[in-house]
Amino acid sequence: MFNALVLDKNPDFNAAVKAVDDDFLPTVAEGLGVTVAIDYSTLNYKDALAITNTSPVVRSWPMVAGVDGAGTVIASEHPHWQVGDRVVLNGFGVGETHKGCLAEKAHLNGDWLVALPEAFSTRQAMAIGTAGYTAMLCV
Questions:
Q1: What is the pTM of this model?
Q2: pLDDT per residue as tens digits for the range 57-88
Q3: How many domains would you assign to the chain?
Q4: Which CATH number does the domain housing residue 35 bear?
Q5: How does pLDDT run across 11-55, given as a tens digit for each residue?
Q6: Which domain holds residue 52?
Q7: Cα separations (Å) of 131 from 61, 76, 90, 115, 135?
């Protein structure tokens, strides 16, 4: 069991932190799955829209919010990622069509992950987060 911020519409919208089973983790194409123990995620504008149900951000229900995250690989089928690798993720429909990172763990496509440089902690990576990434793209 692990905790996750679950968004659901059954029948009415609800956003709550819930204890969920590993069966709640999404499936990923064979050979690409990576399970990450999430240390940090940020609350982005898109997350706020999803959590408050004020915009049709979520495309698949139920959903775990969180469009970005940083943590440590705890299981991997992907040839590039090994248990213990520190990774960061931003985008790829996470928190919209694929369960996101506002949870204690996430099961992700390894092709979406980026190795976290040694110079950064997972906390520092998420202090920059999606907002910092977006700002970088603008300059």
A1: 0.93
A2: 999 999 999 999 999 999 999 999 999 999 99
A3: 1
A4: 3.90.180.10
A5: 899 999 999 999 999 999 999 999 999 999 999 999 999 999 999
A6: 2-21+30-138
A7: 25, 28, 10, 19, 6
